Amino acid sequence: ENIEMIAVNEYGCESKIPLNITADFARPTIDFTGDQIIACNDTSTMITAVSNTNNPEIMWDQIGQNISQLETINIIDPGKYTVIITNPTNGCSDSKSIDISKQPNPESIDYDIAQPLCFGENGALTWNEVIGGTSPYTAHINTNAIAQNVMISLNSGSYLMQVVDINGCTLAAEINIDTLSDFKVNAGRDTVINLSESYQINASSDLPWSSVTEINWSPATSLSCVDCPNPIASPEESTEYSIIIKDKNDCIRTDKVWVRVKNNKGYVVPNIIHPGSTSGNGIFTIYPEFASILSIKFLRIYNRWGNIVFVAFDIPAGDPQYGWDGTFAPDLSLLVRWK
To answer: What is residue 243's three-state secondary structure?
Structure first.
């Protein structure tokens, strides 16, 4: 607006000066530079308030509290921030707000582990999903990529599982696959026995027998038991016995032992007896060696003239009570025993 200023002195003299009055009510402009999202791998973000005003007066506000008077501030916590800028020339001010958010980080990894049950077996891992962060995700075991919902085999040991979302945000978990101890069974030493003899097998194991859930010997032929660690074997021919044991996880260990049988045969026949003797040599019969004779089909005793003095049928071998006591009966029917 154009006006004229008039000055009059004490003598009534006037002086006029034209004046041009202008009004300045312009508010400062406000803009922001910087990342409005705190990256998942960062702890803060730098935000700068930009204005067209020279040397502005700046005040940053959060939840009613003045936090800075600088153009650039380092923001740690997500939330709403307001900047107030004042033009020092005309005193006009304006404000503008900015919302700062935090990039979501993966929070947890959902996975399944199948631990090995027996020594020498592998464990298994299945990656199911990731909770938190921003999909899609990639996952690695150590440096090897793994697919979602696909079971992979892992040897015993420790592994680092890491997932990365589309923003590069990461989360790691330690995976441990159990290392199991081995156990063995020893069926005992091979042995040789004579026919009709017995042998006690002495099996042993790294596991206490109380921790063994199942014992099985095969073949079961001529064994006193098939579910005990120390059966008595009485085979009639050479036999290889196998033992199988199981632990609580049904892990199996096996071993074998040979029981070889010597088929020695023979018998002993007294060449003299003393009838009525109490020293044990008063009876005549046939005594087997190595249990090679079970029974005597018939036993006939003749005198020097060829006459029968004793006959016995189907008597146990080596049992004196069924033999001849040295007596003679004239009645032949009295000579026949144990028909």
So the answer is: strand
Strands 252-262 and 191-194: parallel
Partners of 66 in beta bridges: 61
Residue 219 preceded by cis peptide, ω within 30: yes
pTM beyond 0.70, yes or no: no
- Contact by Cβ (8 Å): 107, 133: yes
Residue found under tokens 């935090």: 102
283-294 pLDDT tens trace: 899 888 777 788
pLDDT digits (tens, 9 = 90+) for 67-105: 999 999 999 999 999 999 999 989 999 999 999 999 999
Q: What gap in Å lies between CA 304 and CA 307, rounded to an integer?
A: 7
By the 8 A CB rule, do 198 and 234 touch?
yes
The span from the CA of 271 to the CA of 291, in Å, is: 21
Tell me the mean pLDDT in the region 318-327. Answer: 87
What is the three-state SS of 79-111? EEEEEEEECCCCCCEEEEEEEEEECCCEEEEEE
